[in-house]
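Example 4.3 (complexes with small molecules)
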Amino acid sequence: MTDKTNPANPSRRALLRGAALTGTALAAGAAGGRAMAAADPAITEIQDWNRYLGAGVDAAPYGMPSPHEAHVVRRGVSWLTAENTSSINFTPLHELDGIITPNGLCFERHHAGAAEIEPSMHRLMIHGLVDTPLVFTMQDILRMPRVNKVYFLECAANSGMEWRGAQLNGCQFTHGMVHCVHYTGVKLSTILEMAGVRTTGKWILPEGADASHMTRSIPIEKAMDDCMLAFRMNGEALRTEQGHPLRLVVPGWEGNMWVKWLRRIKVGDEPWHHREETSKYTDLLEDGRARRFTWEQEVKSVITSPSPQAPIAHGKGPLVVTGLAWSGYGTIKRVDVSLDGGRNWRTARLDGPSHDKALHRFYADVDWDGREMFLMSRAIDEKGFVQPTKDQLRAARGVNSIYHNNGIQTWHVSTDGTVENVEIS
Ligand code: MTE
Ligand code: CO
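Answer. The structure with cobalt (II) ion bound is encoded below.
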């Protein structure tokens, strides 16, 4: 009888060695096959998971990430806000790849906490300058024709702490008020047409059912163009934090307009500018004037790895430099990457789907010589907009705003692989 789990079993050892050789042969060109040379215990020792039965199929009716991924979580910055009901946390961009943000990792921004709504009690009312005011149940909405779309959502305050200089040490904190989700829902134009918007109806005022009763004004052209009433994210129902059971999707435009827990849409002939709301659409300039109606999130990118929370752990040689690029004006056409603080640029490789107003993933496959680097990325969108440097942005807008900072980010990589948020000029 042969014991299949006995490490001393010669045929098994031979098999493992064979497997390791094949693996190393494949990897040799890239990483050098160091593991095999060092009689790696990961190859020579039988591990517990190889010896004992794993958990049965029903151990987790709703699956969770591997316990070894427990560090991949949303994080807040404690001094940023006084209370966690009117607060913000950040997507761990440095731990993710591809373009889709997993539901449990989408950053949260609430003005009055996350409302937990009983879906059968939820109503969406549409009224104001319409021929027929209407009220929909979730059942009604689930009977309308659906669309599927991938869009990024970026809070206008993303990177807002960085206006005056490098501040927060990690792309989770500097750029993590963005997520990208595959939405399923109904086009907003479907219900606007059902209600019959009058020719005098120029603006919509969506309102949330949370305790903040959040309202925003959106021009009717945008409402009729690509806005969505979404009830699913990445295939499953919206998460409570993201507005379950219904949220407004306003592609490419700043996050605060994407009203969560959407319960009412009023159609009017002018925008409703509440005091608080006015500040949301406004960037204060150096001379005291303000830019108003700055809705589109402009072309932007960031290197997510290496970055302060994702240092280089493996020394010199092959290095995957990767990051995200996005634009509220459409798709991303090109991303350039610099290793030397903007003196030389190389064109990065865009890989993965390219959706309108969605995150795009880029890579630069680098052979790192082990010397210090100043990593930068610069995105160009389909309209030809080029991501500005932070100095160009400041020259144009001053430093009084905390909104719409799409300047080029610099990461300093030390010879030991540690990474820091810096600015060079
Ligand atoms: N909708 C309601 N009802 N209440 C809110 O507090 N916050 C807004 C917007 N919609 C908010 C809301 C802001 S400022 C942003 S940036 C986005 O929701 C954040 O969406 P998320 O929490 O899904 O990331
Ligand atoms: Co916001």
